[in-house]
Design a protein that fits this description.
The chain has about 130 residues and is an all-alpha fold. The protein has four helices and no strands.
Length: about 130
Amino acid sequence: MAQQENAPNKPVHLMYLGGGVTLFYVTQWTIDWLWGYFAGNPPSELVITLIAGFVALTAGIYFYRHERVHTLANEVSAELKKVSWPGAKEVRAATIVVIIMAIISAVILGLFDFVWSNLTELIYGG
């Protein structure tokens, strides 16, 4: 059974859910900050939460029904299905390489800092 082009799928719904939750929190924090900055005392947390929920829900429904956004979300989901994700062994090896390189870089930068600070102290006097 072939999947239809615009059939809803889990990654697309998760994108919308993640975007809606993110928009909810950003709106909530923004209202709280703006109201507190410009008007003094912000309204109750319930009012802020209801406004942020309304904004996030309205934007989510609007973008879900918007054909171009929905098509783009489906295309992104289809492209992500083509990606060959690394296995646990590859991730572990890459993580170890990153940690070792970070340690080596920190040691090199620490040595440069030590040499430079001693050199400047020698030149300018301490």
